[in-house]
């Protein structure tokens, strides 16, 4: 008798547990599973509850390893993972955060590999901007949570950020811009790295070429200066050209010189780094004199200026004009 009662009790408990389980989890004819509701024919897994939907998977307790997903709330929409209590992955409405991130870039997955054409020109056309994100719509947030959602929105979305505008980038390097089904555009910032590397290399080559030209120019001027200096006993050998002050300058700089009374004609000439004459200032004064050069006459950059006396170069010096 006792065994029969015990058996009946076990059966009743089993039935109650089964009914409870069936009430929480439903599997339809397609093999789709629903937790808290019946799944549709197209849904492999549906999870819902009376509050905001969420999923959490743990291993060896929360402090060991866990993955969590929060849905339907602007303040908690996220995918996150923790290990030993420390977050190693977080993705929400404000960004994706991870301990490290790698992009698949193996040569075996690529074809039609080619050099980037005109990288520096493309980089110079890009416009870096600062901006703030537009606030999300809070229509679906429950009234009791609305104040917290607005506070969260203000903290997260009022932050000033730096980046690019996808529509502008698409006109210059469309390869790094993607447009989704609703027309919104995204930029693959990581793919711009290759463009920046090639642009720096191109710019460095230009710098090296300019250095070479500058060295050759200085060498020629040095030889010319030595030739003039060796002419002892002449009026030109006693002439002097001094460094401009201030240097660098942004508005006006003054160039001091000395010309012997015997000099018939004299002028101060300004050249660019390629040796092209940009300006010539006639000098009537003899003895110690000074000439004012206005920065408004030139673009920002490095220049040479030379003192010419009776058709011969006295000396050459460099000056720098800033913006």
Give a written overview of the molecule.
There is one protein chain. This protein is α+β, with helices and mostly antiparallel strands and 323 residues long. Among the domains are: 2-98, no CATH class; 231-321, Macroglobulin (MG2) domain (Immunoglobulin-like, Sandwich). The chain has five helices and 19 strands. It starts with a helix and ends with a strand. The model is unreliable at 1-22 and 227-233 (pLDDT under 50).
Which terms would index this structure?
single chain, five-stranded antiparallel β-sheet, four-stranded antiparallel β-sheet, elongated
| Shape type | elongated
Q: What is the CA-CA span between the terminal residues?
A: 104 Å
Low confidence ranges: 1-22, 227-233
Question: Averaged pLDDT, please?
Answer: 77
Helix-strand category: alpha+beta
Give the fraction of residues assigned to helices: 25-40%
Q: How much of the sequence is in beta strands?
A: 25-35%
Radius of gyration: 38 Å
Helix and strand string, N-terminal first?
A: HEEEEEEEEHEHEHEEHEEEEEEE
Strand order of the largest sheet: 4-5-6-7-8
Number of helices: 5
Write the layout of secondary structure elements.
Layout: H1 2-24, E1 25-27, E2 33-35, E3 45-47, E4 54-59, E5 65-70, E6 78-83, E7 86-92, E8 95-98, H2 119-125, E9 129-131, H3 146-157, E10 161-163, H4 166-172, E11 177-179, E12 185-187, H5 192-229, E13 240-241, E14 252-259, E15 266-271, E16 277-282, E17 287-294, E18 301-309, E19 312-321
Parallel strand pairs: 2-3
Antiparallel strand pairs: 1-2, 4-5, 5-6, 6-7, 7-8, 9-10, 11-12, 13-14, 14-17, 15-16, 15-18, 18-19
Helix pairs in contact: 2-5
């Amino acid at each position: 008798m006792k065994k029969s009662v015990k058996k009946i009790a076990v059966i009743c408990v089993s039935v109650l547990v089964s009914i409870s389980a069936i009430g929480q989890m439903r599997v339809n004819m397609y093999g789709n599973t629903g937790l808290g509701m019946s799944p549709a024919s197209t849904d492999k897994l549906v999870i819902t509850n009376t509050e905001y939907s969420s999923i959490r998977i743990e291993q060896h307790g929360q402090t060991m390893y866990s993955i969590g997903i929060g849905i339907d709330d602007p303040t908690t929409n996220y995918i996150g993972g923790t290990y030993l209590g420390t977050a190693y992955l977080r993705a929400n409405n404000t960004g994706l955060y991870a301990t490290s991130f790698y992009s698949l870039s193996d040569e075996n997955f690529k074809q039609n590999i080619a050099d980037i054409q005109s990288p520096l020109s493309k980089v110079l056309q890009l416009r870096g901007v600062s901006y703030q994100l537009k606030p999300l719509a809070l229509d679906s947030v429950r009234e009791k949570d609305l104040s917290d959602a607005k506070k969260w929105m203000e903290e997260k979305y009022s932050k000033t950020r730096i980046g690019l505008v996808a529509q502008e980038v698409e006109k210059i390097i469309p390869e790094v811009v993607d447009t989704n089904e609703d027309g919104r555009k995204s930029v693959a910032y990581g793919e711009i790295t290759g463009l920046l590397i090639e642009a720096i290399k191109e710019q460095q080559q230009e710098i090296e070429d300019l250095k070479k030209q500058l060295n050759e120019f200085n060498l020629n001027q040095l030889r010319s200066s030595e030739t003039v200096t060796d002419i002892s006993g002449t009026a030109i050998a006693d002439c002097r050209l001094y460094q401009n002050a201030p240097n660098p300058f942004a508005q006006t700089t003054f160039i001091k010189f000395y010309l012997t009374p015997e000099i018939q004609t004299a002028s101060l000439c300004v050249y660019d780094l390629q040796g092209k004459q940009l300006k010539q200032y006639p000098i009537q004064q003899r003895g110690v004199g000074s000439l004012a050069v206005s920065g408004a006459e030139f673009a920002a950059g490095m220049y040479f200026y030379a003192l010419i006396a009776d058709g011969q170069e006295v000396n050459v010096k460099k000056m720098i004009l800033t913006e």
